Amino acid sequence: MGRLGADLPSMSTITMSSACAQLCLRCRGFLSSMNSSRLYYVQIQHSVRKDKSTKIGEGLLSRGNHTAAQTRLSWKRPTSCYFGITAKYLTTETEESKLGTDIAEYKPALLPTVDVSPCPPNLIPPEDLDANDHCSALEEISDEEAAAISIPPSIPPSSVSLRDYVDKSETLTKLVQLGVSLWKLEQRPNVGSMLLRLDFNRDVAPRLLFLKEIGVEDSRLGYIISHNPFILSESLENLQARVNYLKSRKFSSETVASMVSRAPYLLNFSVKRLDNRLGFYQQQLKLSASNTRNIVARLPRLLCGSLEPVKENLKVCKIELGFKENEIQHIVIAVPKVLTTNKKKLTQIFDFLHNTMKVPHHLITKFPQVLNTKFLRLKERHLFLQYLGKAQYEPNLPSYISLDRLVSLPDEVFCTELALATLEDFYLFQKTL
Hints:
Number of strands: 0
Helix content: 55-70%
Largest sheet: none
Oligomer: single chain
Order of helices and strands: HHHHHHHHHHHHHHHHHHHHHH
Distance between the termini: 162 Å
Strand content: under 5%
Number of helices: 22
Radius of gyration: 52 Å
């Protein structure tokens, strides 16, 4: 008993130590649950901002491995939607921690995946908010980003036709009203873009007024611009200088206006070029100044086109066709178009006249209009007269038929006055050719 009584203090000590141990274990469990709950709450908040690609998993979570379990979770709703989950988990863990301190592991309640409080309809999912952050109207952007923002233009940026711009461009609208053929201009490279850059009041109107001042009729303005839109980019000083040069060469104002109306590119050439062209025709044909002005006034495109076809036709008339110099002068003065006509057509008509119809050079020179006619008309009428036995082109013989009348009269007059036949007979004969 004494020994037992002597041991009583040690039993009390043991009891107190055991109670202290129980209390320490209970406090450690409570603190551990608090720390794990706070850690889990922080991980939830971090997952909402960072992790968008994981999926919500259903299963048991261990108290010591919250981070590993969290990587398998996918939070598809805003942060406010998970406050209920956090509250339920904290409550469950706290209650289970009170069951005993000697339990090493426990099974917390399952995380709900369906019974989560729904997001308010006015909230946007986090991934949508992140995706649209760069499009926010309240976000500040740099000067470079602001300069890179493109504003849709009021007119189409590109098109294959100028008609898409007519309603948006004052210049094109006014040009259409003048009778300009935009479908012709849009087929030429860089002309459409040039017209769109022009301002009507600054660029177009002054040139149109200039053309009217020199005598061009309103009805010819559309024709001139349709064939030569580049006149709208010429300076008024250059245009006036070229008109003044032509007048200094004794071209009347009416003649200058007529030449510009029929040769739209005339005023695009410099004074030096115009002077060289006039000198060329005067020297090559050995014409007087008056005759030179005469042929140029009647065919003003002689001053605009290339000189190579002219030089070639002069050689053909002299070498191949056998005309004399004075005969060539007479032909050119009467029909200036001979200088620019096609070489093949010119030789074909002359060959038929001289070798088939047996017309000599002096008669062709006397009626040079025959060189400017259509070859088929000349051939059909000659063969019809030959069929009737009336193909006689010598002025000194009876039943003489003038070459001028042969190619210039209408079909009905030709049949009644020259062939002495009906128009139906001529048409029937044409079918036999």
